[in-house]
Specification:
two-stranded parallel ribbon, 7% strand, single chain, mainly alpha, two-stranded parallel sheet, 151 residues
Length: 151
């Protein structure tokens, strides 16, 4: 994670990756509209990275990056790419993962569309708070890390 933090510190700077207005205009920056894809290798089995797994879902694990980084800067998230059990990956699975990742990168701009996220101070309609309150507005917010140069 140290490498990722260093990259974030150097790339996501005030005035470039997020606004300087007070209050900040969440979702408005020079990165607004760019595609974002996180690709991860996970040492644990896929069953351990799930809603009922010991580590929680991949969505939960990536939430700080998706929400605190991509949502904040207005990037359009894509579904993450994950390779599970990567510390014990046999050669044939490595080749298959590399091929799948290359295919995924080759189709980024022909994807089905970014995952919906709230912009500004509003919530996505399907995540508006229920009558009893709660945090449904953030439930399922997905933001994901390969930055495209296309808007």
């Amino acid at each position: 994670m140290g490498g990722v933090k260093g990259w974030i510190d150097r790339v996501f700077t005030s005035g470039f990756a997020y606004g300087t207005a007070v209050p900040p205009p969440y979702g408005e920056s020079s990165l607004t509209g760019r595609l974002a894809l996180v690709s991860v290798t996970v040492g644990a089995r896929e069953s351990a990275i799930s809603d009922r797994g010991i580590h929680g879902s991949l969505e939960d694990v990536l939430h700080p990056m998706r929400h605190g980084l991509f949502w904040f800067t207005g990037m359009n998230p894509l579904e993450p790419f994950a390779v599970y059990s990567s510390n014990e990956l046999p050669d044939d699975r490595f080749v298959r993962a590399r091929t799948e990742f290359a295919r995924r990168l080759g189709t980024l701009h022909g994807h089905a569309g970014p995952l919906p996220v709230a912009r500004g101070r509003g919530l996505r309609p399907r995540h508006a708070a229920p009558a009893g309150g709660g945090d449904a507005g953030h439930e399922g917010t997905r933001l994901d890390l390969h930055v495209s140069d296309r808007v």
